[in-house]
Amino acid sequence: MADKVRFGLIGSGGQGRYLSDALILGGKADLVACADPNPAAAETAVQQCGYKRAYADTREMLAKEALDAVIVATVHDQLKPCAMLAVQAGKHVMVEKPMALTAADGRELVAAARKAGVRLMVGYTLRFMPERILMKKLLAQGAVGEVVHVTAGQLIGGMGGWLGEKARGGGPLFYIGTHVLDQVLWVVGRKAQRVYAEVTPKGTGGVEADALFTIRFEGGAVAQVCTSQRMGGRYGWLDVIGSGGRMRAEWESNALYVESRTLEAYRNATTIAVPPDAYLPKLAPNARVNIVGFRYVRVWAAELLEFIAAIQESRDPSCSGEDGVRVLEVCDAVFESGRTGKAVQLS
Q: Does the reported pTM lie above 0.85?
């Protein structure tokens, strides 16, 4: 494969254009074509991001264009169908979270990607934030000993538009809760066994106002997770407690709190201001980007550079389709437990 990977975009709205800017920043992608059922959105991606051609029909783009890979950044209920079209066309796919609305649909997409011999990555961006990378490294070094308890959450204000419609995959669990749920599974690193949830309905649109749930893992670790749209702003946290210490990271902060009885350097409680340049990619020469939130576009660039590396090295990306399915298995259990009032055992 050439040094630059030929990319198409399915879903040319805000998130699709943000990720396109991240591709530009990484300097290893050729932006070939974009598709969106709203022609104005596709034309905006051409003008703003530099795609060569725009399509109103995804199938037409996949049939006509010489693409190596596709980003799928649609509304939630269209993620799996559009990603499946790309996979069946033989394209590598980076699909935005939550990748599908059920674990069964996620498994179907993973199986199709395996059969087609293409790489499938799920867009769980928090894995690429500098403070989370350092947290994961310190966990591997035994900073907290054996992980026994995790508390985590992602909170946001009221959600409107399609994000308030259950049929479109709206609601805080799919929108922001899956991000923190992936983080919990990532840091615990064991199979989830049982889930119990309290889910508060919102009323109109059928989505939840909040979901608070407990996950028990193999080996005995327990996580407590909260996701909600009843907060006036945005807040998220990840607190990891173990037999030898604890760590805490917060959303939209580069600080990492570490207290360790196993690593001498952190025996005294320490707050580390994690330097972004140590973990995030440098700008490609003469790269131009259009969006604000530079910290996030560099994180998205890191995510997409990992996807490109996985393609070029013929390996699974670090956030694989199977990882996405594990998140959806817990989401299925949260909704089922919320409906029945009973704990759900995962197979």
A: yes
